[in-house]
Design brief:
The structure is a single chain. The chain is an alpha+beta fold. The chain folds into 2 domains: about 60 residues; about 425 residues, Beta Barrel (Porin), CATH 2.40.160.10. About 20% of the residues lie in helices and about 40% in strands. It has 4 helices and 25 strands. The protein has a 16-stranded antiparallel β-barrel. It has a two-stranded antiparallel ribbon with strand order 6-7. A two-stranded antiparallel sheet has the order 15-16. A hairpin with a 3-residue loop joins β4 and β5. The protein is elongated and about 160 Å long. The termini are far apart.
Length: about 550
């Protein structure tokens, strides 16, 4: 049984082995084929990888070449940048060293690159045209309108003609050309000539010539000839003042120790809320001026040399106690003192200067200069000294503006008579119809014209700037004048009293040009100082009332 069992096991094992061998023999060719296919695929993949490797190597070589080229280009760009920067630096340096030219505000200006040296041209042209609406002149025996010396007459003469027939016509009121600027940063200068005049034009004269040190800001020191600051209206620019002329009393006060072409030395300082100035003054510049001195041929030969120039002092202080973003109030005081008037006669036979040799004369041409006749005039007052004192106020709120001044003038007589005091005041205001405010000028503590918001242009429909103005002024140059019809007392001074209403319309087409239209209603009250000299009845009224209409065309830069 066991033998039978082993036989069966051996038989089964042999059959199984045979089957396996037969299966293996049958599967061998198929495995070889699959292997060969895999090998072929692997060889193809290897070949492809080798191709990619070769291609990548080529790309790497190309990339290396490109990198080399890029590096070379970058080097060239760096060199170009460096060269360009150097060239730009040279260009900038050259440009910075070039003089600068400007036409800001229509004013030709030149300066060095660092601003240490500047020069600017300055020009002002004002042509006035006026008509005086007076009654026609009557016979001198019945038409008693008179004035002091006329243009072309000597100081001892009386004008028996012009007061009765004030000149209608034209006048180049100002025709100025000059230059101003800065030298070495802290030094300023100005030279200005004027060919205009009052009544008639001058042949031309030096109007301003001064040097100024400004290295002590906010203070400045000035020496030369210029209109020293004596009041609010005096400091307003003649390019932008409300009316053609200053108020009569302001003009009288300024001409005592300051005024146009006055030689002096002084200092001033300011910021936006305060201003102070002090000056010592002398004579005015002597020029050929019609009516100054008349030769034997009747020609003007120029100012006579004195035996001693006038010496005076002028001062002004202003502060702003109240102000806001579009409004301010300025208050100020000012004054002048003539230590000694000019000595015009020299020593007399006794070695002493005659009383008449040192005198003060107060006068004015009633706020319009087309006719230069002075209807109020004290004549020469023998004087040891004289002084003025005044107060001022200015108020601005947006386009509205008003200011006022009051003046008192005292003369210490040297002829033994009581010393007179004269006075006057004015108030004026303006309204910018187009809304621009007048600009405050801190360097003068006064208000200039507006910055024109919309310059006149037919193309752009710009109206320019328009302004309405009104003023009342009074200047009283009478002292103990006495009643009408009476002879003057020994101490009387019948200089006259002027009362003037003025109405104005101002048009600013732009910052360079301006047109002004004024109507003045003038009343002069004056008694005849001397019946024989003035050819009138004793104590006759020699004043008058009239209306003047005037137009000014102006170009200024």
């Amino acid at each position: 049984m066991a033998t039978h069992h082993r036989f069966l096991v051996a038989l089964v094992g042999g059959v199984s082995l045979g089957a396996l061998c037969a299966a293996a023999a049958a599967a061998a060719p198929a495995a070889d084929a699959d292997r060969d296919a895999r090998i072929a695929r692997l060889e193809a993949a290897v070949a492809a990888l080798q191709g990619e490797v070769a291609q990548n190597q080529t790309l790497q070589n190309e990339n290396a070449e490109l990198k080399a080229e890029v590096g070379e280009l970058q080097s060239q760009v760096a060199d170009l940048k460096s060269s360009t920067v150097e060239q730009l630096s040279d260009v900038r340096q050259t440009a910075q060293n070039q003089p600068r030219v400007s036409l800001a505000g229509g004013r030709p200006s030149f300066s060095t690159a660092d601003g240490q040296f500047t020069a600017a041209l300055r020009g002002q042209i004002q042509l006035d045209t006026a008509a005086y609406l007076q009654p026609s002149a009557g016979p001198i025996t019945t038409d008693l309108r008179r004035s002091g010396p006329a243009l072309g007459a000597s100081a001892s003469n009386v004008d028996l003609t012009h007061a009765r027939n004030l000149k209608d016509g034209t006048l180049w009121r100002r025709a100025r050309i000059g230059i101003d600027g800065t030298a070495y940063g802290d030094w300023d200068y100005r030279i200005l000539f004027d060919f205009g005049g009052s009544g008639v034009e001058d042949a031309g004269q030096l109007y301003e010539a001064w040097a100024q040190y400004s290295g002590l800001r906010p203070f400045h020191i000035r020496v030369g000839a210029w209109p020293q600051p004596i009041g609010l209206e005096d400091q307003a620019s003649t390019n932008t003042q409300l009316f053609l002329e200053r108020p009569a009393i302001a003009d009288v006060a300024r001409n005592l120790a300051a005024g146009d072409t006055r030689i002096g030395a002084g200092a001033f300082g300011y910021d936006n809320y305060w201003f102070v100035s002090a000056d010592v003054t002398g004579r005015t510049i002597g020029v050929v001026n019609t009516g100054t001195v008349i030769s034997s041929l009747g020609n003007a030969v120029g100012a006579a040399q004195t035996f001693g120039d006038q010496l005076g002092f002028v001062g002004r202080g202003v502060f702003t106690p109240f102000h806001g973003s579009d409004w301010r109030v300025n208050l100020g005081v000012h004054g002048s003192y003539v230590v000694q008037p000019a000595n015009t006669s020299g020593p007399g036979t006794n070695g002493l200067t005659p009383v008449s040799g040192m005198a003060v004369t107060l006068k004015d041409t009633q706020e319009l200069r087309v006719d230069g006749t002075q209807l109020i005039n004290t004549g020469a007052i023998p004087a040891r000294n004289a002084d003025t004192i005044g107060g001022e106020i200015a108020v601005q709120k947006g386009p509205l503006f008003a200011q006022s001044e009051i003046e008192s003038i005292h003369v210490s007589r040297s002829d033994g008579q009581p010393s007179p005091t004269f006075g006057g005041w004015y108030v004026e205001g303006g309204w910018m119809l187009t809304g621009e405010p007048r600009l405050y000028n801190a360097s003068t503590a006064a208000f200039d014209g507006p910055a024109v918001a919309h310059p006149f242009s037919l193309k752009d429909h710009g109206p320019g700037a328009w302004e309405l103005a009104m003023r009342y002024s009074e200047a009283d140059l009478n002292f103990n004048a006495g009643p009408l019809g009476a002879a003057p007392m020994a101490d009387a001074i019948r200089g006259g009293d002027s009362q003037i209403w003025s109405f104005g319309l101002n048009w600013y087409p732009n910052q360079v040009f301006r047109v002004m239209f004024d109507i003045d209603r003038v009343r002069i009250d004056r008694l005849s100082p001397n019946a024989a000299l003035f050819q009138t009845p004793t104590g006759a009224q020699i004043g008058q009332s009239y209306t003047a209409i005037a137009v000014r065309t102006q170009a200024a830069f």
